[in-house]
Amino acid sequence: MSTTEPVATDEDSDRWEAVRDLPPSAKLVAKVLEYDDTLTQSELAEETLLPPRTVRYALSRLEEVDAIDSRFSFTDARKRLYSLSV
Predict the structure, then answer these.
(1) Would you give per-residue pLDDT tens digits along the chain (86 residues)?
(2) Number of independent structural domains in the chain
(3) Dihedral (Cα; 24, 30, 64, 9), 10-degree rounding
(4) Residue 29: which residues within 8 A CB-CB, separation 6 or more?
(5) Residue 47 lies in a domain
(6) Could you list the residue range(s) of the whole structural domain that residue 54 is in?
(7) SS3 state at 79
(8) Would residue 15 count as lying in a domain?
(9) 8 - beta bridge partners?
């Protein structure tokens, strides 16, 4: 019986290079965005079980290394939507 496990490629490791040296909270936020595509800051806090302040810090660190994109929400202009760009 053979099992197929995803194999990390050079492309995957290059893709995550910008995130590698960031704090664990930023890595967790990036992983959640990888699976859930686009979320608000409050949705990220809910999904990661991190405090809102920690999510805010993680998002700022991810923005510093251009690992995420953010845009205003059309349904609520007070909120921003975040998505992974790496």
Answers:
(1) 555 555 555 556 677 888 999 999 999 999 999 999 899 999 999 999 999 999 999 999 999 999 999 999 999 989 999 999 98
(2) 1
(3) 100
(4) 44, 48, 50, 55, 58, 59, 62
(5) yes
(6) 22-84
(7) coil
(8) no
(9) none
